[in-house]
Amino acid sequence: MLTVCRNVERNALRANLVKRADQWRWSSLWQRVYATQVHWLSAWPVALPTQWTVYVNAAQTESELAALRHSVKRGSPYGDEVWHEETAVVLGLQATMRPHVRPGKAKTKASEKKPAPFPCPQGWSLPGFPFTIPSRPSRRQP
Q1: DSSP symbols for 31-89
Q2: 68 and 43 share one domain
Q3: Residue pair 49/55 in contact by the 8 Å Cβ criterion
Q4: CB of 131 within 8 A of CB of 125?
Q5: Alpha-carbon distances, residue 10 vs 2, 16, 68, 77, 102 (angstroms)
Q6: pLDDT tens digits, one per residue of 101-127
Q7: Residue-range definition of the domain harbouring residue 74
Q8: Phi, psi for 128 (deg, rounded to 5)
Q9: Distance (Å, rounded) from C-alpha 8 to C-alpha 44?
């Protein structure tokens, strides 16, 4: 949970809006540092580490950020492997743990392929057809 909260409180810093995350007045970190007691900021279910502001402002690794983004993109729980699997089962999110790929199409021989139907402009002939599609008469009045 702390990793996810750190990621949220780092948003302004990561976007280069401030030099330190606690300088962004509209963030929950700023509200907590300056003890503003706003009604929309709830207490956390875990104790805040003593050096939380230092931790939030420390550099975030690319692997940590990639793992968080993957979790958000797939809608899967974020955490270590065991917790991730247990939580996904409890919440019915097992599909978010599978690889995100589409099954491949069955390969067919070139001789078995049928040309896809497509609209043909009026007056053009189609290969393989013994006739030409007649053009429409003009609708213009002389």
Answers
A1: HHHTT---TT-PPPSSPPPTTHHHHHHSPPPHHHHHHHHHHHHHT---S-HHHHHHHHH
A2: no
A3: yes
A4: yes
A5: 12, 10, 13, 20, 34
A6: 766 777 766 666 666 565 655 555 556
A7: 61-100
A8: 90, -5
A9: 14
